[in-house]
Each structure stands twice: as C-alpha cells, then as structure tokens.
Design goal:
heterodimer, A: 110 residues, mainly beta, six-stranded mixed beta sheet, 11 strands, B: 115 residues, four-stranded antiparallel beta sheet, 0% helix, 49% strand
Chain lengths: 110, 115
C-alpha cells in the first residue's frame, strides 16, 4: 500500500523564523512530489513541485528531495502569520493520482 | 484565466437522495481528477478522467458512485442514494495534457452534507 507520512503537528514557529516540514513516502517508484497549502475550509493550493533529487527554490519556499531516503521536505523562510495553514505533501507513482499525506498544521505567531 | 470551477459550493441532501457535483477544468486542461476529503481525514483520490474516458477509477467506491466527463460540458460526479457517511468535501483538480510532472490545480470544492 502506497503511503505518505507527515507529522500532524502543530508546528509552531515565531514570525520571521524558518519552518521545516517533512514527509516520507513508501513507494520507491514515486515520480513527482508536491507541496500544497490548505487554509481551513478552503481547497488545496499548489505551492511547490519537485521531481529531481536536490533543492528547488521559489521565493521564500525551498523544496528538498532525497529519493534514496524517500524523503521530501519544505522549508519556509521568514515565516509570516499568513503562512499559518495545513501543508499537504503529495506524490504520484504512475503520473496520475496524487497520494496525499494527512498534512502538517503550521502556526506562525506574531 | 479562470481556475477550476466547481458547483454547487454547498449541497445538502437527505439520505437516499442523489447528489450531482460538477467540475469545469481550467482552460486548456483536459485531465480531471476527483478527490474526497472526509472530516479529519486526508485527501483521497477517487477517479481520473479525460474527455469521454475514465482512465483510473481505482479510488471510487464500487456502489452508488459514478463519474463522467462528456465531450461537451463539465465533469460530473454522481452519488446515488446518499448516506450520512458521504458527507465530505469533494474536490476536483485539473492538469494540462502531456504534462510530465502532472501538476494538478484544485477547484474550491463542493461541501456535501447528508441529513
């Protein structure tokens, strides 16, 4: 059974700090990896995608992928209260269906 | 460029009634996916469709649920004889054709409440 695991949190960081979110996946055949942000009562919003080992940066966000360790992470620099949300890690195996983790709740205090 | 559109945003049904959820993908996108998010649960894949074809329905319950994406018009997720356990948020996502990474963009969702 293909699984994606995340620490449910809450992860609490002060404003301006770096938030580090982690995710592991079980299927070595996983091809692409995504981070979505979901505010309470809203739909998931794609914030990062990565498919090669290493780092990918976009603004304050950096995604890191290590396929050997089956590990993907998201770093949020200069965290803002508006970053407070649930962050969902998702992977695809066959390039179609996304398999989601249950999400990590991030709380950024001002 | 309009995003993924879903309607209705909220739907209330009594047990035994039918629910029809509609999804229009982003402009230029021809792949549609349906996901369900139960309270306190993660998002679960249900079905993947292209125009007039169901590509993967491995996540669909075997009974009462069906989906279509006709040549013209939106994709429809149909739930017959709803039960209280069907109460959830149903999200549609779309992706462009021939995308090697398959980034999927979500609509606002339909919140189904079964009384």
């Amino acid at each position: 059974q293909k699984e994606v695991e995340q620490n449910s949190g809450p992860l609490s960081v002060p404003e301006g700090a770096i938030a580090s979110l982690n995710c592991t996946y079980s299927d070595r055949g996983s091809q692409s990896f995504f981070w979505y942000r979901q505010y309470s009562g809203k739909s998931p919003e794609l914030i990062m995608s990565i498919y090669s080992n290493g780092d990918k940066e976009d603004g304050r966000f950096t995604a890191q992928l290590n396929k050997a360790s089956q590990y993907v992470s998201l770093l949020i620099r200069d965290s803002q209260p508006s970053d407070s949300a649930t962050y969902l890690c998702a992977v695809t195996v066959s390039g179609t269906a996304l398999i989601f983790g249950k999400g990590t709740t991030l709380s950024v205090s001002s | 460029n309009a995003g993924v559109m879903q309607n209705p945003r909220h739907l209330v049904r009594r047990r035994g009634q039918e629910a029809r959820l509609r999804c229009s993908p982003m402009k230029g996108h021809s792949h549609v996916y349906w996901y369900r998010q139960l309270p306190e649960e993660g998002l679960k894949f249900m079905v993947y469709l292209q125009k007039e074809n169901i590509i993967d329905e491995s996540g669909m319950p075997k009974e009462r649920f069906s989906a279509e994406f006709p040549k013209e018009g939106p994709s429809i997720l149909r739930i017959q004889q709803v039960v209280r356990g069907d109460s959830a948020a149903y999200f549609c996502a779309s992706s462009p054709p021939d995308s090697p990474i398959n980034e999927q963009f979500f609509g606002p969702g339909t919140r189904l409440t079964v009384l």
